[in-house]
Each structure stands twice: as C-alpha cells, then as structure tokens.
Design brief:
Shape: flat
CATH class of the largest domain: Alpha Beta
Largest sheet: 6 strands, parallel
Distance between the termini: 60 Å
Number of strands: 8
Number of domains: 2
Radius of gyration: 21 Å
Strand content: 5-15%
Length: 258
C-alpha cells in the first residue's frame, strides 16, 4: 500500500500563525553583514556578418512557428530562445549536435574584460558546452592559471588564490560551494533564464566570509535575446511568462517586417 501526503490549502499560513509567537523568520541579509553587490552589464556589439546571421536565423525560426501566437508551445519557445542565445554567444549546434562557430564577438569582449581586471581572479559561468570549449581555447595562451571546477581540490585551490579563471556551469556549481575566499568577480559569459540558478550561482561569492564588493559582469549582445534575458532576470517573478511574452514581441516585429 502506498500513502501520499499532501498539505491542505491554507495549511502553511495556519501553521505559521500558530507558531508566530515562538518563531521568527529571517533572511541571510537580515543578520549577516555582507558587502555590496554591483551588477555590470558589458554590451557586446555584433559585427555585420554576425548580426546578419543572427537576424536570418531568428527570422527563419520565427516563420516556422504557428501563425497564431496562442498555438506556440512552451517547448517551441524554449527551443527558439536557446538557439538564439547560442548564436549570440558565438556558436550554434546543428541537428547532429556538432557545434559551428559563427562569430568571435563575445569571446573578444570576454578577453577584454578579463584583461581589464588586471590579474584579479574571476568565476566564469558558461551556458553551452561550445562556450566552454571556445573559452578554454581563447585563454590557452593567456598565461593565466585556468581551471574547470570539477573537484573539491579545485574549490580549495581557488580559495587559496591559486587560480585566475575558474570556469563552471551554473547547474553544477550553484549550490553547496563556498568560493568567497577566492575572488570577488563573477562573469556570465552565457546567460540563463533560471532566476534561482542565477542568484544561487552568484551567492557562491556573495556569502559570509566575503570581504570585498562582489562585482557581477554580464556579457550582453546588443539587439539579441541576451537583452530579453537580462530584463527577465530583473523582473524575478513569472520568468516563464516573460519568456513567452518577450518572444511574442519579437515574433510580431519580425512578421510585421515580412
């Protein structure tokens, strides 16, 4: 026999009311003295060839969608968004999952940003595997100490300031890691729609024990889906709704111009 327990509607508020005289609920920022966080948006301008490729792909995929906006599924919207985010980053997967580099605009902006840090370590988040491969290739001759975050030793070496660039995917490092001793700069090479993943990833540096202002850099390609993601992250709530609405706005603009 299998039992299933599910809270009744309103039970949470009822329980909280009954224990309100003996319990207090506090957020970390209510009792911890944490340094400030600065968000830095780095605009990336696509060159003419890259911009043309982006607009052609966007137009092609939009015209393949159902004519009625209400018939566009969440899965179709997500697939289109991922393709456009890939292209903004500089490469795209084909149907056989082989990556093809389209432009180096964001890689160049990333290298300029790293250079501007003047040797300060940075925790770098990527979105797609081809981002990771191209970042590693671009940094190969930089002379910097590069490491992918894979083991507890990588975490320890970072916190001992023995790593200049620590590369990781937010899905594998957003929880349970203490990286605040190793630096105060976060770089988002590729952006994510997942607000919880985004905030938890940033908290790897912005947590108790961090003594410096945390600076979060976002590489954002102008005129692309990157800008929609940044706006969505600022809204915090109803991310899925915003994904759909921002996509529909782009669809209307493209179809109007056809």
């Amino acid at each position: 026999m299998i039992y299933n327990y599910k809270a009744k509607p309103g039970s949470e508020s009822s329980i909280l009311e009954k224990i309100s005289d003996i319990c207090i609920s506090m957020k970390a920022e209510d009792y911890l003295q944490l340094p400030e966080v600065t968000c830095h948006q780095v605009p990336v301008v696509l060159d003419a060839k890259a911009e043309k490729s982006y607009k052609e792909l966007e137009r092609k995929m939009v015209l393949e969608l159902p004519g009625d906006e209400d018939d566009i599924s969440v899965a179709s919207a997500a697939a289109l968004s991922n393709k456009l985010l890939q292209l903004a980053n500089g490469a795209i997967y084909d149907d056989s999952h082989s990556a093809h580099e389209v432009h180096g605009c964001k890689i160049e902006a990333f290298l300029e940003l790293v250079e501007s840090l003047q040797g300060k370590p940075a925790l770098v988040f990527y979105n797609f595997q081809h981002d990771r491969e191209r970042i590693l290739k671009a940094l190969a001759k930089s002379g910097l100490r590069i490491r992918e975050l894979k083991t507890s030793r990588d975490e320890d070496d970072w916190n001992r300031r023995e790593i200049d660039i620590l590369l990781t995917h937010p899905a594998s490092s957003a929880y349970g890691l203490n990286l605040q001793q190793g630096g105060n700069h976060v770089i988002w090479f590729g952006l994510t729609w997942n607000y919880e993943l985004y905030t938890q990833a940033n908290k790897r540096l912005h947590r108790q024990g961090q003594n410096e202002r945390v600076i979060i850099h976002h590489l954002v390609c102008s005129g692309t889906r990157d800008e929609d993601v940044m706006e969505a992250l600022g809204k915090k709530d109803d991310m899925q709704g915003w994904v759909m609405e921002s996509l529909k706005a782009r669809i209307r603009a493209i179809r109007k111009g056809v």
